[in-house]
Amino acid sequence: QVQLVESGGGVVQPGRSLRLSCAASGFTFSSYGMHWVRQAPGKGLEWVAVISYDGSNKYYADSVKGRFTISRDNSKNTLYLQMNTLRAEDTAVYYCATNRRYFHLWDPFDPWGQGTLVTVSS
Amino acid sequence: EIVLTQSPGTLSLSPGERATLSCRANQSVSSSNLAWYQQKPGQAPRILIYGASSRATGIPDRFSGSASGTDFTLTISRLEPEDFAVYYCQQYGSSFTFGGGTKVEIK
Fold it and tell me: For residue B99, which of B35, B46, B51 has the smallest C-alpha distance?
């Protein structure tokens, strides 16, 4: 079955960097757009970034534009999120999610990984 | 940016009752590109409805979605104990945005 497993979370000081990974299995990873979504403690969901199936198109939320970079390695079935210049307000559980339909970019998310917690604190 | 406003913030109901959750967009959502997700404590969200009214695979038929202009509704016909959770709407026609969520709690 489809499985998405995030890793790389942890505690990091403000201004520092962190890279998250999402290992995918159980489906043809190279055919699906992929997303990062975050959820601050006790808060709602916030979409962060999307990358097309072939990596040629990337879009970001205004809150992370210029600081975060989404990428993928289709040979390793892995999605990444490089997070630079981290702020306290970036503290959240970060989920990766795949699009419901292959080759689509503007699509609902199905399924989601279990998430990895990023805490930005001095 | 499309803003989605969900109401009510909290819905207190008993098992067996009907739940009606609302999601209003501040502008047109193209092609009914509206989804609903359920999230239980400590779990990732899971999709319930896409295209405003299509049930995702494996979702019971007590869950239904509808649309009228910029107003979207998720209805749970008879609440089961496992349905008490937080529900989010999402539009995916113009970038991606989520509503603030509605918590369905046991009365």
Answer: B35
Q: Please report the residues numbered 6 through 45 in chain A whose beta carbons come closer than 8 angstroms to any beta carbon of chain B.
A: 35, 44-45
Contacts 24+ apart (CB under 8 A), A66-74: A68/A36, A70/A34, A70/A36, A72/A29, A72/A34, A74/A29, A74/A30
Restricting to B residues 41-60, those with a Cβ less than 8 Å away from any Cβ of A are 43-47, 50, 56
Residue B84: pLDDT band (50, 70, 90) is very high
Rounded to a whole number of angstroms, the distance from the CA of A83 to the nearest CA of chain B is: 20
pLDDT tens column, B4-57: 999 999 999 999 999 999 999 999 997 789 999 999 999 999 999 999 999 999
* Residues A109/A95, Cβ–Cβ less than 8 Å: no
The verdict on a CB contact (< 8 Å) between B99 and A44 is: yes
Structure tokens that stand for A98 in this block = 């795949």
Q: Would you call A29 helix, strand, or coil by DSSP?
A: helix
Radius of gyration of the CA atoms of chain A, in A: 13
